[in-house]
Amino acid sequence: MDARPEGPRPGSLVGRGAELDDLDGLLSDVADGAGATVLIEGEAGVGKTSLVGTLRQGAAILGLDFRLVRAAQADGRPVGLLTDALIDPSAAHGPVESELVDLTAALTDGHAQPQAIARAAELAAALVRRQSDKRPWVLVLEDLHHGDTGSLEALVRLAREGAVPGGFLVMTMRPVPHRTELATTVAAWTRAGARYVELRPLAPRAVVDVAERLVGSPVGPALRGALATTGGNPRFASDVVRTARAHGALEERDGVVDVVGTQWLDSLDEVVRGRLEYLGVEVLALLEQASVLGTSFVVLDLAAMSGASVPDCWRTLRHALAAGVVRARGDRLVFGHDLCRGALYHGLDAQQRRVLHARAAWALDRAGAPSHVVSDHLARAR
Ligand SMILES: Nc1ncnc2c1ncn2[C@@H]1O[C@H](COP(=O)(O)OP(=O)(O)O)[C@@H](O)[C@H]1O
Ligand SMILES: [Mg+2]
Prior knowledge:
Blueprint: H1 17-31, E1 36-41, H2 48-62, E2 65-70, H3 80-86, H4 95-109, H5 114-134, E3 137-142, H6 149-160, E4 167-173, H7 180-191, E5 195-198, H8 204-215, H9 221-227, H10 234-246, E6 250-253, E7 256-259, H11 264-276, H12 281-293, E8 296-298, H13 299-306, H14 310-322, E9 326-329, E10 332-335, H15 338-347, H16 350-366, H17 371-381
Parallel strand pairs: 1-4, 1-5, 2-3, 3-4
Antiparallel strand pairs: 6-7, 8-10, 9-10
C-alpha cells in the first residue's frame, strides 16, 4: 500500500498530475521528432497559463525551443499573434519573413483585404513548418479566443496537414461562445487529431492545498469556509488569501492560519467583480439580477423578473454559462462560485437591491413559489 500522505508534490501544480503527465509524454514524443497538438480549454483563472508554463522547463531539459505568445483582446494587428511568435524583430529576416512583415504592415495601415490576409496566413503556416524542420520546438498560443482572424486562418491551414513533425503546438482558450473563425480552427484541429484537455475546477481539497501553500501552514475553519465559495477556481482561492493578508486579516494560532473579522470581505467582493468584468455589461447586469434570486435560479423567473424574453435571457446567459460563472443543473442554473454571486449581490446599491427583491417577489409569486420565499423577498424589498 502506498503510505505517502495525500497532497501536492512540492513544486508542482496542485491537482493537475494527470494533465502534467499527459503534456510531458507529448513533449517527449516531439523531442523524438513526432508532432503534437493540444487544445486546452477552461474557465478564467482555472490554471491554463500555469499549466502551459510548466512546459518551459520540460522543453529546456529536452533541448526544445520554447515560444509562448498571448492573444490580447481587441488587438487589431492582422496575423499579429503568429507574427509575434514567428518573427524575431532583432534577427535578420529571410524572404518569407520579410514578405510577412511587409504584408502585415500594409494590412495594419490599410483595410483588411481577405486575399492579403490569406497570403499572410500562408506565409505564417510555412514559417511554423520551417521552424519545426529546423529544430523541435514548443509553440504555445495563449488565449486563442482573442486570436486575430489571420492567425486563426493560418492555424486552419496547418491543421489540414495534421500535427507538424517536430512541433508541439499548444493552444489555450476560455470556453466563451466561440466566434466562427475560432470554432472553425478548433474543428479543424479536432479533425486533425489534436488532444483536447478540459481543465476543470479543482476539487475542494485541492483548493485548500492551494491556500495552504500560499500561507505556508494548515488553514483554519473560517478560511476554509471562504475557500469553499471559490468553486474550485485557484485564482479565486489566491484572491481570498491575498486579500485577507493585505487587510491583516490572517492570524496564526497553534500553527494554524485562519481569517478573522469581516472587513476584508468588501475588498474581496471588489476584486472578484473586477475579475468578472470581461463578461461585459449586459451579461453582468443580468447576473446581478440573478444574484438576487439566490445561488440557483430558474431561467423563466429571471426572465420574468428582468422583463426580458426567455430567448433573450438565454442568449445573454449563454456567455455566463460558457464562462462557467453559472452552470446548468437540470432546469435550473447554479452560480459556479458562490463568491461571484455574493460579489455581484453586494455590488448592488441599497435602492437597486430593494427594487430587484420586489421584482423577484412578484416573479416568484406568479410562478407559484411558496409564500415564505415570496415574503422573504418582500421583506428585503422594504
Ligand atoms: N493547479 C494549481 N495549483 C496552484 N495554483 C494554481 C493552479 N492553477 C492555477 N493556479 C494559480 O491560480 C492563478 C490563476 O491561474 P492561471 O494559470 O493564470 O489561470 P488561467 O490562465 O486559466 O486564467 C495563478 O495565480 C496560479 O498561480
Ligand atoms: Mg491565462
